[in-house]
């Protein structure tokens, strides 16, 4: 349904051109939840903003297609995109406090989409807002309709964001770390809510996060980004339990809570690459303990592996060996 | 009995009056409250002028010794050289000048807010053009420009409105532009864009309510400026035309009698000062109320 093909996003910065997204291809089927994971600065959020067409002024899509229901969104004008943003796709942000308008009543914020996109009158839109508030589990919707965002707790604010995202019945919701700002118990409630709503309404998700357990809980497929490129894609279980890319392996080992037997947390050495002058060959090679001479020179596109998965690593067998060694234990 | 005992506090903890959180109310803001009361009295006196004084502000009384009377029970501030009651003319003058000032502030406020929002939100060449225009207007002193414009347009109320609009909008545009530049980087604006809302809707429904307060606070001091301009124009004979009562022309008329009948100029002048004071107090109070912790 959503098909991103070879997307390139470049940002003009003072110190040069940043290749924030460099040849990313993603497919999301109807009703599917895709996790997009990677470190800060790996291009996850830029990918989302490119899909929505709300890139910052300095950033531009320089190549690639974003096809939603057979229509390429890249060449569309802003006003054409405004007919797609909302009714076809919407976004949930990381910080519900700053993503909600502080001086607008939450009910009106939820009702705004239906008024603008579905042509509802105020009364009907208000009814729709109340129904959505009920659906996302805000108690006392009639009372809370006239409240302002600061009168809500963090979890309730995120529920309001979800209600706004759902307000025009979109086909796909882009989630930019929606649970990162919440504490763990609330995080779990919000994830369950999202999973339930997706199952109910058949809406697709792209779920950006750096939190692997969250991906395991909510997504069917996962794509791992590093330095603006995809390094591994596949089914969540396959990728997280049996990684085929040393970066994914590093992520899994440095995450404290996946069903994965290991002895201690192992950080990934080094720091993310500069996207102005990225390393030649595989972008991960300076930090990779399996790196060989060919990793330095050869470009590393995604290669299909059996089982519907793909990796960008030239020496992915090493990961298999490392995973196997981990399983056996010391 | 339990093995562990807790020591009793030696002194009962007293919750002091100050420890109680108090809701912020406008009447607890001394400057706002006093300014509002002062302005209310002035506006009431101006609006109710026909009820407060039996005299006609325009009708001259040249018979015998009715002119240039000193203060008395009949004429609180005496009469002027044409036998008109000074207190009556003061109230009607206030009524006229306040009305012009409050109406005159509306057009520049609206124009400035709209143009400032557009400049701040869209940036680029629109912003450059508008801001150069602002720079040109700001390069001239406010009163000089107003007086020159009214002189060119011809005396009268209509000219005052046009002049104040042409000169006044720039301050609002600057304030709103600055506020919008900051506010548009907030995530709620990105969220509104992501929800497919149009630029006009984002500016009107999402940005404006967040940035308008600064313009409202400024409007309070702008009204003071406008009143001073109106009085100055009246003083030069460019403003409200005689015989209609106006504080500026009253000050000018009374000038010739300053040594003998000082009340003719002093009280209209004092009235301007008190109006200015009340509006400034309101502006300060509003600013403190809206920006907590900075007073």
Describe the structure.
The complex is a heterodimer of chains A (330) and B (295). Chain A is globular, with a radius of gyration of 21 Å. Chain A has 13 helices and twelve strands. In chain A, strand 11 (303-305) and strand 12 form a beta hairpin. Chain A has helices at 44-52, 78-81, 96-99, 106-117, 122-135, 141-144, 154-166, 184-201, 212-218, 236-241, 246-254, 293-297, 316-328; strands spanning 2-13, 16-28, 33-37, 59-68, 71-72, 89-92, 172-176, 204-209, 221-226, 229-235, 303-305, 309-311. Helices cover 36% and strands 23% of the residues of chain A. Chain B has helices spanning 30-47, 49-52, 86-104, 106-122, 124-138, 142-153, 157-183, 187-194, 199-235, 247-255, 263-290. Chain B is flat. The chains are: A alpha/beta (330), B mainly alpha (295). Chains A and B meet through helix 4 of A and helix 8 and helix 9 of B.
Morphology call of chain A: globular
Given as residue ranges, the uncertain stretches of chain A (5+ residues, pLDDT < 50) are: none
Main beta sheet of chain A: strand number and arrangement?
8 strands, mixed
Tell me the overall shape of chain B: flat
User: Most extensive chain contact?
Assistant: A-B, 28 and 18 residues
- Please state the CA-atom Rg of chain A, rounded to the nearest Å: 21 Å
State the helical fraction of chain B: 55-70%
Number of separate strands of chain A: 12
Major pleated sheet of chain B: none
User: How would you classify the quaternary structure?
Assistant: heterodimer
- In what range is the share of β-strand residues of chain A? 15-25%
String of helices and strands of chain A: EEEHEEHEHHHHHEHEHEEHHHEEH
> What is the distance, rounded to the nearest whole angstrom, between the alpha carbons of the first and last residues of chain B?
54 Å
Could you tell me the mean pLDDT of chain B?
86
Give the proportion of residues in helices of chain A. Answer: 25-40%
Number of helices of chain B: 11
